[in-house]
Design a protein that fits this description.
With 369 residues, the chain is α+β, with helices and mostly antiparallel strands. 60% of the residues lie in helices and 13% in strands. It contains 10 helices and 7 strands. The radius of gyration is 35 Å and the shape is elongated.
């Protein structure tokens, strides 16, 4: 059975723009209606007051102005006075609109630093300006993330490409020994694998972030999946003589098996990678209060406070000594997948000097007993 885990984001940029346009349209319609009413009512009242005063003083009687003529004069006077009032009022009304138009033009030209005054009157102008500032801030954030992403991706692609190119050039030397030729070929294969992994991670990250991924869930033995991941990484932990302390319950869990496979493979691979030679990796799996708890720990250097703040950021690599072994997308993608299953992941240091990652996943409602 195929199930979709898509959720509509709380607020997309389209929502912000739609909300902004709605506020502008509604506010302007209300504001101009009020202004027109005030101008018409004010000019009519003023002309009526002037006519009453003229009648009380006997000016109209002395001038012998007939009623039809008086009505026409009142209408013309109302129009003239109303026009004069409108000219002065429109300057106040149109000022925030002109400022908004200027700010929108700056944003369209790529300047997301522009901000509008959020303390103006009336209330709807403040709301429009606040919404505009929020939109400009979000666009600025997206632009910064986009530039950082492009820069990081370019760097991560350039490094293995340069290595592949360099070793490919060296292979053209006919005087190479078989041993050197095999070594250079292995380096090219490693670089190609790193590029392939990077591209696959970027595509998966893009699909998850854009919610353009169909999640196919099934119920399976998750402890068996973890054991299979351990076996697939056997050459790595055997080379470093890593010991394992495993305590896993037999648990059936409903999830996207292929995505969860990436989570466990990445976490186990990281634990092996950052463990010293002859180190120990601990793995536990249990069910607690309706939650699936997976913990993996390894001996080695603790995570610094600075690294702890950014450890799940895209392209962040706190330990540069292992930079050539990864691309900084693994943990960011792991977090996205865990969140896709409504779970959470945390990293920390234990008093015993271990680095530990904890994944907490809620059992789906249909699986709960």
């Amino acid at each position: 059975m195929r199930k979709s885990n898509k959720k509509k984001p709380k607020e997309t940029y389209a929502d912000i723009a739609a909300d902004f346009n709605a506020k502008v349209e509604s506010g302007l319609r209300w504001y101009f209606s009020l202004v027109v009413f005030i101008v018409l009512a004010g000019s009519t009242l003023l002309v009526g007051i002037l006519a009453y005063i003229a009648m009380a003083l006997g000016v109209i009687g002395r001038l012998r102005i007939e009623m039809p003529v008086l009505i026409v004069l009142m209408i013309v006077s109302s129009i003239i006075i109303g026009t004069i009032i409108t000219i002065f009022v429109s300057k106040h009304v149109l000022r925030p609109i002109n400022e908004l138009s200027r700010a929108m033009k700056q944003v369209s030209q790529g300047d997301f630093s522009v901000r509008l005054n959020e303390h103006l009157s009336p209330l709807f102008v403040r709301r429009i300006n606040a919404t505009f500032n929020h939109m400009a801030h979000e666009l600025s954030t997206v632009e910064t993330l986009r530039n950082d992403f492009v820069s990081n991706v370019s760097h991560e692609i350039k490094t293995p490409l340069s290595a592949i190119e360099g070793y490919a050039v060296l292979l053209q030397d006919d005087s190479l020994t078989d041993e050197e030729r095999h070594e250079y070929t292995d380096r090219i294969i490693d670089g190609s694998k790193r590029l392939s992994t990077l591209v696959a991670n970027i595509l998966m990250m893009s699909k998850i972030e854009s919610e353009n991924i169909t999640v196919s869930k099934n119920t399976y033995r998750i402890d068996e999946q973890i054991r299979q991941n351990l076996l697939s990484l056997e050459p790595k932990w055997t080379e470093k003589d890593i010991e394992f302390d495993i305590d896993m319950d037999s648990i059936e869990f409903t999830a996207a098996e292929s995505l969860m496979n990436h989570v466990f493979t990445n976490l186990i691979d990281n634990a092996v990678k950052f463990s010293p030679h002859g180190g120990t990796v601990g793995i536990s799996l249990a069910e607690r209060e309706g939650m699936l708890i997976f913990e993996i720990s390894n001996s080695g250097q603790p995570i610094t406070d600075e690294a702890m703040e950014h450890i799940f950021d895209k392209f962040y690599q706190g330990d540069t000594s292992h930079r050539s072994e990864g691309n900084g997308l693994g943990l960011a993608l792991v977090k996205k997948i865990v969140q896709l299953h409504n779970g959470s992941i945390h990293a920390g240091n234990t008093p015993e000097g271990l680095v530990i990652f904890t994944v907490e996943l809620p059992f789906p409602k249909e699986q709960k007993k």
